[in-house]
């Protein structure tokens, strides 16, 4: 229920800020724009209610330190089917092999 109140406070403060900005434009005082204190307090209270009751009290936190498998860093990033070219010869080796024949460039 309090999450809904926090959300409504944020919506109301956004509408109030839009109306205040339009009022300043109508009065030709747009260069003196600042957020009024009541709207600022409404934003802070709405944000605090949403953060406290929406995040902290839900307690649906997942443990990010437990992994289903225990792999080392090298095992996790080992890709046997991925060949990384080393230099210009490695990049062009497949092209040369197709054009000239099957031989090894790296001798």
From TrEMBL:
One cellular component (GO) term of this entry: endomembrane system
Q: How does it sit in the membrane?
A: Multi-pass membrane protein
Q: Where in the cell is it found?
A: Endomembrane system
Q: Where are the transmembrane segments?
A: 40-57
Q: What is its main location?
A: membrane
Q: Name one Pfam family in it.
A: MMgT
What keywords were assigned to this record? Answer: Membrane, Transmembrane, Transmembrane helix
Do the record's keywords include Ribosomal protein? no
So what family is this one in?
Answer: Belongs to the membrane magnesium transporter (TC 1.A.67) family.
* The protein's name: Membrane magnesium transporter
Q: Which organism is it from?
A: Paramecium pentaurelia
């Amino acid at each position: 229920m309090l999450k809904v109140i926090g959300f409504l406070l944020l919506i109301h403060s956004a509408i109030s800020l839009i109306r205040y900005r339009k009022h300043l434009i109508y009065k030709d005082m747009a260069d003196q724009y600042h957020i009024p204190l009541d709207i600022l307090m409404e934003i802070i209270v709405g944000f605090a209610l949403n953060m406290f009751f929406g995040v902290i009290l839900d307690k649906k936190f997942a443990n990010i330190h437990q992994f289903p498998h225990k792999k080392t860093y090298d095992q996790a990033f080992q890709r046997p089917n991925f060949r990384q070219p080393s230099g210009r010869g490695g990049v062009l080796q497949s092209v040369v092999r197709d054009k000239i024949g099957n031989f090894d460039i790296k001798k």
